[in-house]
Amino acid sequence: MNVPKHPLYYSFNTILNVKLTKIRAELRVEYAKKVLLQGLSDSLTLDTIWNKARFSSRSSF
Q1: Are 41 and 19 in contact (CB under 8 A)?
Q2: Which of 7, 12, 13, 35 would disulfide-bridge 20, Cβ 3.0–4.6 Å?
Q3: Which three-class secondary structure state does DSSP give residue 21?
Q4: Which pLDDT band holds residue 18 (cuts at 50, 70, 90)?
Q5: What is the rounded CA–CA span in Å between residue 23 and residue 37?
Q6: In this model, does residue 40 exceed pLDDT 80?
Q7: CA-CA distance, 56 to 29, in Å (whole number)?
Q8: What is the mean pLDDT of residues 4-10?
Q9: Predicted confidence (pLDDT) at residue 60 exceeds the cutoff of 70
Q10: Distances 58 to 13, 25, 46, 54 between C-alpha atoms, Å
């Protein structure tokens, strides 16, 4: 989006009353669930899935 982080976080927190970090985490979980439910886990390792979902570590996944 080419937008600095601070105004984006501020907008989500103040205007929308939602934390951007929470939305980001929810989107990551939804992506991982989608991959697993589509059966792509047969061809992808869990390490690949958490990495593609942009989790910071295996334990956070």
Answers
A1: no
A2: 12
A3: helix
A4: confident
A5: 21
A6: no
A7: 13
A8: 87
A9: yes
A10: 28, 14, 9, 10
